[in-house]
Amino acid sequence: MVSTSFSEAVTGLDGRKFCSYRVGGPIDLALMPTQYESAVEALKAIDTTTPLTVLGGGCNTLIASRGIRGATLITKRMLAVEVVDLASGRLRFDAGVPLARVATTAQDHGFSGAEFMIGIPGTVGGAIAMNAGAMGQSTDEIVEGAVVYDCASRQVLTLDAEALAFSYRHSSIDPQRHVVLAGYFRFKPGDAQAIAHLMQQSLDFRKAHHPKE
Length: 213
Hints:
Elements: E1 9-14, E2 26-31, H1 36-45, E3 52-55, E4 68-74, E5 81-85, E6 90-94, H2 99-108, E7 111-112, H3 124-130, E8 133-134, E9 137-138, E10 143-150, E11 155-160, H4 161-164, E12 178-186, E13 188-189, H5 192-209
Parallel strand pairs: 2-4, 3-4
Antiparallel strand pairs: 1-2, 5-6, 6-12, 7-13, 8-9, 10-11, 10-12
């Protein structure tokens, strides 16, 4: 199924802990990398006949009571953030980074564009795959590209925004073939008070229209 030498592989995890609805059976084999390199290592170690499931933050996801067979890559520990070029507002986020952290990281650097993400309970990988959005904005407006593992070719690819072919809540990412490992974002300088105001608006909207209970 997968090389047992991979140190971040765990068997028989309780699926309820990885689903926001707290439902689901056991995960046969969970691969939980903390770095981009170890994620690639794990993916390349999976036999091509083994079913592969990818989980991020577990939002918009239901896990069946029978659990998940095969291998499951869980990206929520992939949390690296890199400043690619501060002058041009370019940052790189690993797939497991929560969207709220994308928003606050941009804010900390005086950048605008990610305020709408503050209330979205998801991660970078899922946001790119489904072009997540809120408050009339969407991920494609600030994404320059993504680092993707192609399960068919077993290669790591860098796709630009055009190749990602974003549309409403959709992208060219094929969940049966692609695994988003990281995303490249580009922000614009913004006024600190305006950024904070937009973030609060987004949180208020989320609370009013999407209560947790």
